[in-house]
């Protein structure tokens, strides 16, 4: 990047002691911008916040849509470990999950079926390899309920939280 442009860009550090940070962490997730990712731009790792990414599509009611998205879900499931091991470094931060959605949003049923089956299969395989890491359904439900009950501002309620 042009050295003159670099002088004009400044990353602001996330102040973990600020009350605004605690509120932001109810919606966003902690992350770090690493010098190893931008060695010519930043001299030290910078704490920040990030958002989760979602693949959003529209159901056109076409058979091809179901087939293409089902094929994508199967491919993602079968190649997930390879993507995390050999893909872009950001793949290491990806969690294959279907988090609770807020009112008005729903998972595309064909994708949801494929991904839930994939997650169940991966969980069973992990538990078979490491029985000590088993998490009960009750613990998973309690965790999901805590996520749903996170307090939100009026603006966030429009987008994120159950009302």
What are the defining features of this structure?
163 residues, mainly alpha, 2 domains, two-stranded antiparallel ribbon
How would you describe what is shown here?
- There is one protein chain.
- The protein contains 6 helices and 2 strands; from the N terminus they run ααββαααα.
- 1% of the residues are buried.
- It has helices spanning 3-8, 19-24, 63-86, 109-129, 137-148, 154-159; strands at residues 29-33, 46-50.
- Helix 3 runs parallel beside helix 4.
- It has a two-stranded antiparallel ribbon.
- By secondary structure, it is mainly alpha-helical.
- It folds into 2 domains: 1-15 and 30-50, no CATH class; 57-156, no CATH class.
In brief:
The protein is mainly alpha-helical. 46% of the residues lie in helices and 6% in strands.
